[in-house]
Amino acid sequence: MTTAYSQIPADSDLKEVQFSKKSGISSVLGMRKDPFGFQRKREEEFGRISGMSAFGKKWVVASGAPAAEEVLMNKKKAFANGPAWSYLIGPFFNRGVMLLDFDEHRSHRLILQQGFSTAALKSYMDLMQPMIAKRMQDFPTGEVLLFKEFKALTLDVALEVFLGLELPKDEADRINKAFLETVQAGVAVIRKPVPGTRWWKGIRSRKILEEFFYSHIPAKRATATDDLFSVLCRAESEEGQTFTDEDVVNHLIFVLMAAHDTSTISMTQMCYRMAKSPEWLTKAREESLALGPELSYDDLNKLPALDAIFKESLRMCTPVPAHPRMAVEDTEIQGFFVPKGSMVTLTALWNHYDESVYSDPWSFDPDRFSKERAEDKKHRMAWSPFGGGVHKCIGLYFGQMEIKTIMHHLLRNYDWSVPADYELPMDYSSLPIPKDGLPVTLRRL
Ligand code: HEM
């Protein structure tokens, strides 16, 4: 059952978006259960640009690489991040760079960029390499929930590389807890601060994080160190702009969140795919063994099999499955009229299964990224796990550096497997995570 999403202006030759009359709850439950089947059915019924209710709002759902390009490149400046992302995660990640728009976003991003320059990345690599090497030596063996282990490891890396603080255990636990509660709040079902709920805990924890970061700012401003916290206290754009204390705190909290689950999900997917296709695990291990234990920044591009596994794993399960925006003026997507005020979302997860782009998209085939086949180059947005346009992930090189360093140590020192008939059960209620934590049998080599 459909209805028109909105009235088209009389003088317009744009097409009308068809809007599904399904209730928001039934759409959200359908998406969570099977996002692929849900979107396929919608496209068969309404086409690639369609309307639906979800999370208490009406949304224009735009699927396919051309629509993604139009919205993300945003040539007419018709789409804004802030009002859309704030609706979902605003109270917890207030004034993070992804929630800013246009000139304000540009000026903040230029300063933030100083924390992600090649020189900065190299110094993070120096901080992270020995720490990861040591932690991987003590990695548990036997029946291991990989997702859980990766989460703990990446959180420790974040504390060291982003914050550069040596905290007593109690304090580290308190901050870890506050951070996890802040992250979890974004996907709360009850979206009001009812005591005891995720939303309420998220707001309480955001306050704890703010107080914690503010208390360390004077010391961070006084002495330069290599961590992101210190870099942001000193960062200056070419135009001479710097961050206030408030900016530093807002950006740090956002970056911690943006880096954490995305990297953990990527590594979990890579390990799962390698366990299911052990020939790729062997190829990646041979590369890592050839390089020696310590991975340098320049070694990162000497791991072609691992790189292809990374790309294919992120194609098959992209950690950020949708990109929400709001239309800030009457506009269009692929010739469909989209009125001012519309919430819009791109179907990033589904776009990576487009049969007109990828051959046999449901099979794990890292060779599709080879120079000869280059399926991902068929369209600018054919492979877009990091988004595109001005909000493209600022941490994409940092993320790959951390993920490849951890994988390098895992491959050199351990083997892992899953039963032949095992299929990873996924929870798609927010970012896609494994319902069972990915249990593997891990043994030391
Ligand atoms: C494999 C890991 C990662 C994936 C798949 C990923 C994905 C994304 C995506 C899709 C966006 C854009 C969202 C949108 O336009 O609506 C984004 C933005 C962002 N990411 Fe990542 N990310 C990853 C790792 C990281 C890491 C490690 C960091 C920081 C160290 C980071 C920091 C950010 C920031 C700050 C933004 C906002 C940029 C802006 O709005 O200008 N990400 N990420």
Q: What does the model show?
A:
Helices cover 50% and strands 12% of the residues. The chain contains 15 helices and 14 strands. Protoporphyrin IX containing FE binds next to α11 and α15. Keywords: Heme, Iron, Metal-binding, Monooxygenase, Oxidoreductase. InterPro entries: Cyt_P450, Cyt_P450_CS, Cyt_P450_E_grp-IV, Cyt_P450_sf.
Category from helices, strands and their pairing: alpha+beta
Into which percent range does the helicity of residues fall? 40-55%
Q: Count the E strands.
A: 14
Compute the separation of the termini in Å.
58 Å
Apparent shape: globular
Q: What's the architecture in CATH terms?
A: Orthogonal Bundle
CATH C-level class: Mainly Alpha
Please tell me the total number of domains. Answer: 1
Alpha plus pi helix count = 15
Low-confidence stretches: none
What is the N-to-C order of secondary-structure elements (H for helix, E for strand)? EEHHEEHEHHHEHHHHHHHEEEEHHEEEE
Arrangement of strands in the largest sheet: 1-2-3-4-10-7-5
Any chance you could write out the topology, listing elements then pairs?
Layout: E1 2-4, E2 18-20, H1 24-33, H2 35-46, E3 49-54, E4 57-62, H3 65-73, E5 79-80, H4 82-93, H5 102-112, H6 118-137, E6 142-145, H7 146-163, H8 169-185, H9 198-222, H10 228-234, H11 245-276, H12 278-291, H13 304-316, E7 323-327, E8 331-333, E9 336-338, E10 343-346, H14 348-351, H15 396-413, E11 414-417, E12 426-427, E13 433-434, E14 439-444
Parallel strand pairs: 2-3, 4-10
Antiparallel strand pairs: 1-2, 3-4, 5-7, 6-14, 7-10, 8-9, 11-14, 12-13
The structure holds protoporphyrin IX containing FE.
